[in-house]
Amino acid sequence: MRWVEYGIFLAIVVGLAHPVGIYLVRVFERQRTFPDFLLRPVESVIYRLMGVRPEQEMTAGVYFFSFAFFTGLGTLLLLVLLLCQQWLPGGPEDSHLTTAMSPGLAVNTAVSFSTTTTWQAYAGESTLRYLTQLVGLVSQNFLGGAAGLAVGMAFIRGLARERVATLGNFWVDLVRGTLWILLPLSVLGCLALVWQGVPVNFSPYIEAHTVQAGTQTIALGPVAPLEIIKNLGTNGGGFFNANGAHPYSNPTPFTSFLSLLAIAVVPASFPIAFGRMVGQPRAGWVLLGVMLVLFVAGLAVCNKAEEVAPPNIARQGVVGGNMEGKETRFGIGDSVLTAVVTSNGATGSSNAMHDSFQPLSVLVLLANMLNGEVVFGGLGTGLYSIVMIALVGVFIGGLMVGRTPQYLGKTLHAAEMKLIALYLLLTPLVVLLLAALAVATDAGRAGLVTNSGPRGFTEVVFAYASCMANNGQTMAGLDANRAFYNLTTPIAMLAGRIGFAGLALTLAGRLATQGRKAGGLGALPCDTATFGVLVLATVLVIAALSFLPALALGPSVEQFQR
User: Fold this and answer.
1) What's the pTM value of the predicted model, to 2 decimals?
2) What backbone phi and psi angles, to 5 degrees, belong to 11?
3) Would residue 276 count as lying in a domain?
4) What domain range includes position 436?
5) pLDDT of 471-520, one tens digit each?
6) Bridge partners (DSSP) listed for residue 217
7) DSSP-assigned letters across all residues of 404-437
8) What whole-number distance in Å separates Cα of residue 22 and Cα of residue 18?
């Protein structure tokens, strides 16, 4: 039954990828679309207010500077709002805000949401006011997601264009990504969530009396607007500490399935948009095919691991799968599917406790993030991760036949390969160094309040991998609201957002200035199953060379100790 659900989900994602990919091309190439009559006047007003000339395009350097400036400005504004939230009107009552918004936590949260990481070292219902969540976090979810869309499309233009020095206009791409994609989808999704029972109100928290004659505080608030854009914008931070496991955040199997589609469909459509824009649609399908193979492989391993009870529970005579840390209304199937989708999609939302997953399942989730989320990935960012891997495959293929490597008619010289190498080395450089610092210092080890040994090591690596991938997932055994982690995790967040974008845009700018060469006998076709196998093998080889020791010391050791 689980595989029926998995199959239906993948069939819908693949089925929607083609029309959504075509729509993306039309939106960002400023071609005619059906919402134009309503949105074009709004777009023009925004350009006038911002002082933007939409016809003026930007070089890769200017485009990146605009992106970095926008990210920095969003971080600063959100930081001010977080530090001043005690003076904001509205609920919840001060008595319910039991976690102080310290300067370190405010900086961490501001960087987290502006980079779409939405790493949360706090519980939303006991830390933030309604207006902070609705104005500060929701706006950053929209704008951060739209900025990622913009960078992804600029990267595609670099491979699609010939002998030009520009990649588009960041502000135009930002506005169109917000108005034409994220805003309408969010309105429809929000209405669907409200229909299913997700609240939208500013009511006080409810003190309910339980059957055991006790009391329980039930948190309320404007939940639905944050819940839908956290998934559409590949953000992931929830209104509640329990995230998608909370019944007000994710009340039914339908809302869970809708959330997963919101995470996956737009990123999965980017390879299709890529293929159409570069003039080789089959090349886009090949990349999507590689993503699907990796996705199904991870899903199979995670499902197999979770359908068996943990040894300590099995020894008590309990049979069945691993239901520890999972909601009974979702079960193993939906919990596994959600974990694999979110770890692949730069969206750290969850409906189960990942710290309760089996070691092999944790290995899958960790590997998905360490691989740069080459499966679907974030809005735009996932595409240039898989393309970077494909370019390494092209380079290896060129070495095999003694030819200068070419991809889509663009030649990869020494300068381009250096940029690609830096891109691939950035994750191990940042994640492994920060993890080593954490496990080697008292301040870092102090966060391991539940587990030590291999599990504790995995929790530390998982945290930095999640931040580097701008994902935001966490294993609950790590107390992240400490000065050490509040100050070190933003380093990974910014490297994963700004560092990757800068390298990708620089490469795109160099490729845009080239002409396109016709493929000869020595050129490697990029639209065949053979090329897909080469890309798949390159993903596995790079992952093994970069992260095998860390994975061996963490989840692999734990698996053999059970």
Assistant:
1) 0.93
2) -65, -40
3) no
4) 281-561
5) 888 887 888 888 999 999 999 999 999 999 999 999 999 999 998 887 66
6) 207
7) --EETTEE--HHHHHHHHHHHHHHHHHHHHHHHH
8) 6
